[in-house]
Structure formats: structure tokens, C-alpha cells
Amino acid sequence: MVTLRLATARTRVRTPAVSPGVLIPALCFVVMITSVMQTAVVPLMPDIAAQLGVGTNAVGWIVTGNLLTATVCTPLLGRLADRRGPRRVLLGILGVVLVGSLLCVAWDSLPVLIAGRALQGTSFALFPIGVAVLRSALGPYRLTAALGIMSGTMSVGGGAGMIAAGLLYSDGDDYRRVFWLLVALAVIAAALAWAVVPGSPGSGTGSGSDLWGAVGLAVGLSALLLALAQGGTWGWVSVPTIGCVVAGVLVLAAWYRHERRSDAPLVAPALLTARAVAPAHLAAFLVGIAMFVQFLATAVFVQAAPEEAGYGFGASVLETSLLYLLPGQVVGISAAAVSGFLVRRFRAERVLMVACAIGVCGFAFVGFAHDRPWQVIVAVAVLNVFVSVAYGALPAMLVEHVSLHDTGVANGINAIARTFGSSLASALVGMLLATITIAGADIPSERAFVAAFVIGGVAALAAGFVAGASRPLQFTKFD
């Protein structure tokens, strides 16, 4: 049910146990490991397959299992944090992530590696729970800037993961060298969270009262994500792919009907579809598409051998990380540092519109000009500004309109929207690179990359229109 009340009128701001100058950087590090764990593994996939003696399709479950766990657990853990308090749930997630990371290095086995990656997938819930921590610990004036910094830091973590992989791994090394880094990051993040994150009470209501809601959400989201993740392998019009899509849609429709009728829903339907929050979720989905198109298409493009493809620069993973991604990461971190202040000054919707316009310019530039390394480096830097600022604006669009005790689940839904956008982008880019090829060769054509950049630009443009069409509602609260 949606009622109109002043969202901040009944919210008690808890005094943090530590100063914001310590809490904010610590949480930035904690949530950043989500992106690092997601992307550090991507460059290693071919070598993991070779070292374990498995096929490409089998090793793909290292990513698919991670995303499935993220999709299922993020909204559920966000709601659990709202009810039980974010600190204890945050520490519990970091413990699970550490166990998963240890599994990845303990045995040289694909099933164990997939299981470890699945446990690492719970890290996707760190960001929405981090938002809940900041909201309970900081006053409204500091909150907006802190959200911008933390969101932007997470957005650049993806590039940081690629850079770390390039620095730690070279051909012939044991792939587990990179996973040892993930173990170290999990340990450091857990120690920081234990020492720094303040305790705060949850709502304490509704726990364990919506089992069918949890099952329906998990099954429906998993079916849709499985279709996106495996559609390229199964075939986009194959029975398994279409079956997963149909099953996912039907289950989610039944889940939504159940949640509308429930007295204590796991996720209030208004947190999905109400006019105050739906634009933020749709914009997150579109930004997720644009972000992953930029990341994936650029990384593949610069590594293409020019003597074979007629484009690209033949860059190694290390060169890709340091030469083409690192400058953009530096620019993105700088943009993240100021995004929160921009949101506080000009409102989140307007900042998101400007960020999306910058993204459209970046995609247009790289689509037309990609013959020289400096052109790609500049484009990546511009696109990192877009992603960092957009990530900072999205949670601010939500916290204005939801109560304190809905912060975790609302941002969990938003994070899943980004995940689905990224998964769709991965499928689209993969399909383009596989179908638009050079005549007589199994090599993607330059036109495939241009088409991918066009898709990224269209997604950024659409996100800007969504932000512009949204109407801020100052006094909305979801019960």
C-alpha cells in the first residue's frame, strides 16, 4: 500500500559509532569488492577452461552461477537487512563471500569453482545494504554526497578487477593467483566492516511471513536470467531458452499477484511499480546495458589483432588494463567524488540526465573514431564519467521516496535491474560479435563493434529520457 507521508518525518537518524570520514571510505571499499569479483574472472575464462580441461560452455557457469546467486539473494538479503539490521547481515554476507573465495583456491575442480563463485554472488547485496547503513548513520545533508561517492566507487570497481587480473596473471600462470586476491579483499572488507560499521535496529517486522514470496521471486528471476546467460549457448529460439522466459514471466506474474494480496509482503509491489520509484529501476536497467556494452565491447576491440581483423590494437590483458582502462578508472573515481555533491545541489533526476547525455556523446565518439589508441582511451574516460555519475544518482532517486526500513530492499531491486541490464548487454554484444563477422573468417567485423556502441548510446539516451520524464514526489512512503 502507498501512503503519502513525509518520508523523513519519522526517521530517526542514528549517530555513527565512527566519523563519516572513516565510515564512508570503509563502505566504499566493502561494496567495491562486488565489482572486482565480478570482472576479475572474465579475462581468465579461456585459460581456466584450458587448465581444467573443460569446454567453453561448461566454464561459462562460473559467471552464470555467480549471477544466479546474485539475482536470487540480493532483494532477499536487502529485506533481511531492513528487518534485522544492516550490520549483522553485512557481516554475514562477507563471511559467505570469504568461504566462497576460499573454495575457489582450495581445489582445482570446476564444480567446486562454480560453487565458490555462487557463494561470491551474495556480494551483490553489499551495495544496497551499504546504502541502508549510510542512511541510518548519516544525516540527510551528508547522505547524498556519501551515496554518490560509494556508488561511483562501485562503478569503477569493474575496471579495477580487469586491471588486477592483468597485473597478477600472465599466460601459463595458475588462474588461482587472481582468486587469492579475492580472498584477501574479502578478509580486509570483513575486518573493516567489523570495526567500522555501526549497529542499527531493523524494523523487526514480518520476518519469515512470506515464504512463497521468497520462492516465487527466486524462481522467476532465476529463470529469466538463465535464459539471458545461456541463450547464446542453447540458441535464442531453442526450447530451453523460450521455456525459461515463459516460466520466468508466469512465475513473476503469479508472485506479483501474491505480493499484492499478502498482509506482510516480502517486497511491497509499490516498491517496484509506483511512479516515485519505477523510473529509477528502469533507468538502472538501461544504465546497466550501457555500462556493460562499453566495458565488454571496448575490451574485446582493443585486443583484436589488426593484421587479422583490420581493426584493434592487439593489446594483451595487461595492456588493456593499464593503457586503455586505467586512465578511465582514474577519471571515473574523480567523477564519483563530485557526483554526490552535484546530486545534492541539482537533484538526482537532473544529474542523471546530464550524465546520460555525456554517455551518448562518449558512445557517439567511439563509434565514429576508434582508429587510434588515444581515441579509445578518451572515449573510455568519458564513458566512465557517465557511469560513475549515473551510479551516484540512482540510489539518491530512491532514498527520497522510501522509508528507512525499505532502503535495503528498494536498492536491492535497483541493483537487480542493473544486473539484468548487464546480462542483456552481454548477450547482445556476444550475439553481434558472433553474427556480424568478416566474410570467410570467424572474426567479428568492425561493424559489429559499431553496432554495439550504437546500442550503448541508445540505452544511455533512453535512460536520460526516463530521468527527464520522472516527476519527483517529495512525500512518498511505502508501507
UniProtKB/TrEMBL annotation:
Keyword Transmembrane helix found: yes
Database matches in InterPro entries: MFS, MFS_dom, MFS_trans_sf
Subcellular location(s) per record: Cell membrane
Location, primary (coarse class): membrane
Record membrane topology: Multi-pass membrane protein
Bilayer-spanning residue ranges: 21-46, 58-77, 89-108, 146-166, 178-197, 209-228, 234-256, 277-302, 350-370, 376-399, 420-441, 447-469
Keywords: Membrane, Transmembrane, Transmembrane helix
Residues of the Major facilitator superfamily (MFS) profile domain: 23-471
The keyword Cytoplasm is annotated on this UniProt entry: no
Protein name: Major facilitator superfamily MFS_1 protein
Classification lineage: Bacteria, Bacillati, Actinomycetota, Actinomycetes, Mycobacteriales
